[in-house]
């Protein structure tokens, strides 16, 4: 439904040029919810604005529903943009228009009759839970209600694609959940394809089918959400995951960590395991086979789109050779092992 082919975007020129996107290839199949996550300044907003050509790519081609937007003239593009609804972090509502009139606006611009507009707007207000707010003004609404108006307005022209630019970043966690549920409902009921950008793993985890990770204008990793959360392919992906799971070693331990192993140190490891390895009795096996005592410092289990993900930070307490063998055993399993550092033995 959405295809970007080798899309690049440079702002400015000469010594002040900023390359915001570089050779982005992206395909979002019809009816799916695709997330793009990245740190601030990575190029997320530029990417999503290149889809409906609010920003024109410096190079590359953009297709929506088989039509190449980058090949259209201005009038054709205005028409084609009806295929792409968009919502924003700060809602972008017209403050001097009522809820009803905000949602009606795209239809007025398309010169639809008052009757046709009414027939379209009222069901959208029902769908977004705003039927009783039609005559109110944006200033009288909560953030979540404003975003619902923006969603209804984005759907008014019957788009095939909804672009969401950090749509929940200005909302509290509870309101975020209700807006994400609404987006999911719209995706399922209307078969709408959704491309969203976010810096929040929670958003990706909650509703996306696939996710891309953008860094310095490049798409560095792309995967199904279950795979991304259980086995990110890049270091940045793993950092996002560790932040999301809040599985950082406690500060008191960080202060004791040494980079190099010494004659009297134990390694501290972070283990991430998914699928079958979750149920493997690892700790008893390390004790039985290698004589290692495992001191668990932190642990947690998450369920992500039906897949189980286990995490643990642990100190492996044994002699140097036993510890080396224990690490080799751990690495032979279907799990990710990271040695965070070494601590002096206290035994
Ligand atoms: N209009 C512009 N003119 C010049 N540089 C720009 C412009 N818009 C964005 N940039 C630069 O392009 C890069 C990517 O910016 P972009 O806004 O796409 O990132 P982002 O991932 O959306 O960041 P954030 O999450 O902070 O909004 C940044 O270095 C930014 O400074």
Automatic annotation (TrEMBL):
It is a peripheral membrane protein. One of its GO terms (molecular function) is ATP binding. Residues 2-241 form the ABC transporter domain. It comes from the Bacteria. It is found in: Cell inner membrane. It holds the Pfam family NIL. PROSITE patterns: ABC_TRANSPORTER_1, ABC_TRANSPORTER_2. Signal peptide: none annotated. Keywords: Amino-acid transport, ATP-binding, Cell membrane, Membrane, Nucleotide-binding, Translocase, Transport. This is Methionine ABC transporter ATP-binding protein. It comes from Salinicola endophyticus.
């Amino acid at each position: 439904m959405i295809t970007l082919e080798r899309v690049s975007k440079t702002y400015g020129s000469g010594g002040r040029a900023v390359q915001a996107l570089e050779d982005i290839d992206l395909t979002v199949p019809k009816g799916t919810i695709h997330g793009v996550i990245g740190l601030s300044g990575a190029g997320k907003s530029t990417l999503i604005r290149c889809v409906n050509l609010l920003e024109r790519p410096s190079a590359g081609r953009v297709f929506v529903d088989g039509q190449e937007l980058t090949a259209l003239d201005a009038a054709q593009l205005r028409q084609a943009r009806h295929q792409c609804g968009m919502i924003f972090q700060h809602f972008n509502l017209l403050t001097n228009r009522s809820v009803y009139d905000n949602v009606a606006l795209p239809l007025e611009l398309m010169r639809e009759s008052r009757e046709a507009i009414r027939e379209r707007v009222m069901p959208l207000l029902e769908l977004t839970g705003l039927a009783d707010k039609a005559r109110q003004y944006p200033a009288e609404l909560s953030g979540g209600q404003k975003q619902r108006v923006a969603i209804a307005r984005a759907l008014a022209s019957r788009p095939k694609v909804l672009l969401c630019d950090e749509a929940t970043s200005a909302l509290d966690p509870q309101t975020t959940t209700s807006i994400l549920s609404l987006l999911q409902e719209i995706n399922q009921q209307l078969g709408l394809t959704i491309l969203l950008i976010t810096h929040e793993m929670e958003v990706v985890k909650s509703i996306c089918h696939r996710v891309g990770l953008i860094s310095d204008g490049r798409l560095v990793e792309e995967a199904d959400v279950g795979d991304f959360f259980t086995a990110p392919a890049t270091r940045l992906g793993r950092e996002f995951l560790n932040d999301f799971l809040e599985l950082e070693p406690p500060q008191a331990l960080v202060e004791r960590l040494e980079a190099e192993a010494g004659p009297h140190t134990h390694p501290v490891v972070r283990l991430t395991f998914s699928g079958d390895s979750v149920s493997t009795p690892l700790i008893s096996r390390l004790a039985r086979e290698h004589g290692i005592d495992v001191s668990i410092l932190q642990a947690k289990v998450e369920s992500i789109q039906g897949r189980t993900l286990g995490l643990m930070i642990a100190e492996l307490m044994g002699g140097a050779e036993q510890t080396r063998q224990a690490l080799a055993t751990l690495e032979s399993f279907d799990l990710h092992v990271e040695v965070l550092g070494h601590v002096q033995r206290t035994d």
